[in-house]
Design a protein that fits this description.
With 87 residues, the protein is mainly beta. The protein is built from 1 helix and 7 strands; from the N terminus they run βββαββββ. The strands form 2 sheets. The protein has a 5-stranded mixed beta sheet, with helices on one face. Strand 1 and strand 2 (21-25) form a beta hairpin. It is globular and about 50 Å long.
């Protein structure tokens, strides 16, 4: 018989999506900064949780814990957008 209990050395992985790519969160809750680091999102970008249904999406603060659940979808967006800026 196989042991199906998660071991403390190997916590369960939680499948999530960030910017359309699959990732596995190693714990819950995770801060916005931890989720950004997991997905390689740049520091000058905000991370948003795609709220199911008609409700507004939720911007995740870098230092605030978020209860990660299987199948959560997140997306990143540049924090400051300046369309007229010189390149």
């Amino acid at each position: 018989m196989q042991n199906t209990k998660p071991s403390p050395q190997h916590p369960p992985e939680i499948p999530i999506m960030v910017d359309g790519r699959p990732y596995k969160a190693s714990k819950t809750p995770m801060t916005g900064a931890e989720l950004k680091a997991l997905a390689g999102v740049a520091a000058d970008y905000d991370l948003w949780f795609e709220t199911p249904g008609p409700a507004d999406d939720e911007k995740l603060a870098d230092g605030t814990p978020f209860s990660v659940r299987q199948g959560n979808h997140f997306y990143s967006a540049q924090r400051t957008i300046n369309p007229g800026a010189a390149r």
